[in-house]
Amino acid sequence: MPIHPLVMQLRFTRSEFIKCLKDVSPEDAVHRVMPMNCISWILGHLANQEQAYWVLLAQERTILPDLNDLVGPGKPANTPPFDEMWAAWYSITKAADQYLNTLTTPVLETHFIYKGKPRPESVGTMLLRNIYHYWYHTGEAHAIRDMLGHRDLPQFVGDMSEAFYRPEP
User: Fold this and answer.
1) Which helix (H) or strand (E) holds 100?
2) Residue 108 in contact with residue 122, Cβ under 8 Å?
3) Mean pLDDT across 53-57
4) Cis link prior to 24 (omega < 30° from 0)?
């Protein structure tokens, strides 16, 4: 089955996010430029959203049960270790892809059921929210890096050869 075009866009967005974090040291990743969170928190926060959407809601399982308490929306600011947040992100996105690889246009129009009630946003809207959330935090991480004095930062949006427009099936 071909990968849905919106899933391809999420993958491209993830790759741009990874490019933004290239060469960030563990020390810089936990440095807070107030009032923003640190880069390691951003990484864990995006992993947390993917876990909530594509692992918990879609697959009814959880990879890292304590992640939401650490980097979830509205939780107190903190500076989690960068290597732990990378490990979380990679394991969660790998698990998320198991579901995302199966998405079709009809499924994108459905709603997850959570605690007996349909979620207010469709699967497709949640996918768009996930993509836009990545772009927000990619820009934020890029700004943090600039404020930390990092030079020769990557250009965004980069090579689109893997993310060109494809009509929905």
Assistant:
1) helix 82-100
2) yes
3) 98
4) no
Do residues 29 and 38 make contact, with C-beta atoms less than 8 angstroms apart? yes
Q: What are phi and psi of 117, to 5 degrees?
A: -125, 145
The angle that helices 123-147 and 5-21 make with each other, rounded to 10 degrees, is 20
Q: Which two tokens stand for residue 164?
A: 């060109």
The alpha carbon of 137 is separated from its chain's Cα centroid by a whole number of angstroms, namely 9
Q: Check: CB of residue 131 under 8 Å from CB of residue 9.
A: yes
Looking at domain 9-147, does it have CATH number 1.20.120.450?
Answer: yes
46-to-7, 40, 92 alpha-carbon distances in Å: 16, 10, 10
> For residue range 1-10, what is the model confidence (pLDDT) as tens digits?
789 999 999 9
SS3 161: coil
Q: How far apart are CA 86 and CA 22, in angstroms?
A: 12
**Any residues with CB less than 8 A from the CB of 22 and at least 6 apart, and which?**
154
How much is the pTM? 0.93
| Beta-bridge partners for 117 | 114
Question: CA-CA distance, 85 to 149, in Å (whole number)?
Answer: 23
Q: Is 58 exposed, middle or buried (0-12, 13-18, 19+ CB in 10 A)?
A: buried
Assess whether pLDDT exceeds 70 at residue 169: no
